[in-house]
Amino acid sequence: MAFMEENVAIFTYSVADLKNWLLHNRPVNGLSPEIIAPTRAFAIINNPFVTDETRVVCALFVNDKLVAYTAAFPEVLQKPENRLAWWFTTLWCDEKYGGRGFGLVVVGTLCELIGEGNFFDAEGARETVEIFRLLGLKSTYIPRYEFVRKRIHTDTIRGKIAWCREAFSQKICERRRKSLMHQKGSDSNYVVKYTRFVDEEAYAFIVAHSDKDVLLRKQEMFDWILQYPFAQVSPLLDHTPFDNKFSSTVKDYLLVCCKIVKDDQLIGVAILSISGGGMSVRYLYYEQQSAKTVFRAIVDHLLSLQIKGFETNDAKLADYVISLRIFTKNYIIQKSFSYPHDFVFSNDKGLQAGEGDMFV
Amino acid sequence: MDRKDVLDRIAPMAREVFGKPDLELCDTLDATQVDTWTSFAFMQLLEKVEKEFGFKFKMLELIKIRNIGTLVDVVMQH
Q1: Distance CA A357, CA A74 (A)
Q2: Between 20 and 30 A from B35 (CA), which of A234, A258, A317, B57?
Q3: DSSP per-residue letters across A92-161
Q4: Quick check: A105 and B44 CB within 8 A?
Q5: By a Cβ cutoff of 8 Å, what residues of chain B touch chain A?
Q6: Closest residue to B40, CB basis, from A8, A105, A130
Q7: Which of B39, B47, B65 lies at the smallest CB-CB distance from A103?
Q8: What CATH code is carried by the domain that includes residue B49?
Q9: Which of A99, A109, A126 is facing B59, going by the closest CB pair?
Q10: What's the pTM?
Q11: Mutate which of B17, B27, B60, B63 to test chain A, going by most A C-beta atoms within 10 A?
Q12: pLDDT for A24-76, tens place per residue?
């Protein structure tokens, strides 16, 4: 059986390449919105830890057709102190070329450029975790607590019974939500200040309350995340053409830093992302003795915004939300975290939901 | 080490990772002919081949592998 000749080309793109393509409209070796969405490219250009020479994207073409790509961005961590960490964001392979290991090729090529021992990945798919294992990373799984309000739609008898049960428990949840909104106790005595950056006071608080975290980002990294979210907001989403395979276009998206204050004292800092009727607690730091007030502030938020889905990595916040019985279902999802061999990960420490890629 | 030797050593590993004990290996066998030849299984095969033959694939070598025949070619170059 004769095979067609394959013309395979692999390109890596630097920040200067992204600037030429995005800001000056110059063609750069097949770089296109298919490979990296403009919003994401613009964010990476503005990353505080890149220079023009930093290589951040890798794409593979077969006979001039895009078949795989990946991207990564760097940061220097606050904890472990001044550790360089590269986070992978995006990995796509054409299904027609499935089983060829092209994902491994693009990730491996970028890893060779970055240097062994500097790359991390959070929330990777099964194949991605396997790629990182082959590239010498260790992996662990971190619990994420997810809450939903949903109804089951099915025509079977069992499905109808389940639907009735769901509808009933949803009504009860609604009642609890309404009564909770009007129930003001000592936990409701707080003020929330919203910012689009992490100020000095908030960052000092974060540093002082991050002893349970295995990683801590620097202040400029938090600001980068808040100022350059990877999501592009398109209110008329149904009419928006998708020109990139790994989409970062959503109908609505809000990423905000909340400083929770009680009696003029900062008691908690949360970075929340809100999109598509769901809320995610991306980062949460709080005084242990004021935990209930901080949790109540977050719950008041989700009640007033009529949030349908909620997620957090914080087990205590999850227990608090479960105790209120305002969602019909809750799950624990195990999210992967891959890290270099010399990185020390202890099981008594956790990871914030926002570590790594910051998309919804 | 000739092609047949390499193929004979790769065959049991391929049968194991693809979960096909009766799989007959030939040069033209590729992902389109084996339903269990997924990216995940292929990466496991690469790892086993590396251990069996005592070398690490370079990224540019992986691009050339499109079937069992090209896998054998790359192994023989080491």
Answers
A1: 11
A2: B57
A3: EE-GGGTTS-HHHHHHHHHHHHH-TT-EEEES--HHHHHHHHHTT-EEEEEEEEEEE------SSHHHHH
A4: no
A5: 28, 30-31, 37-44, 46-47, 59-60, 62-67
A6: A130
A7: B39
A8: 1.10.1200.10
A9: A109
A10: 0.88
A11: B63
A12: 999 999 999 889 988 889 999 999 999 999 999 999 999 999 999 999 999 99
Cβ contacts (< 8 Å) between A127 and chain B: which residues?
A: 39-40, 43
Residue B66, min C-alpha distance to chain A (Å):
6
Q: What amino acid occupies position A297? A: A
Q: How many domains does chain B have?
A: 1
Phi, psi of A197 (to 5 degrees): -155, 165
Query: Taking CB atoms and an 8 Å limit, are B62 and A1 in contact across chains?
Result: no
Q: How many Cβ atoms sit within 10 Å of the Cβ of residue A323?
A: 9
User: What are the tens digits of pLDDT across the range A297-325?
Assistant: 999 999 988 898 999 999 999 999 999 98
Classify strands A191-195 and A254-262 as parallel, antiparallel or unpaired: antiparallel
Q: Write down the residue that tokens 């905000």 correspond to.
A: A256
Distance from CA of A82 to the nearest CA of B (A): 30
> Which domains are delineated in chain A?
8-136 (3.40.630.30), 144-339 (3.40.630)
Q: What is the domain range of residue B39? A: 3-76
Report the interhelical angle of B3-18 vs B68-76 (nearest 10°): 130
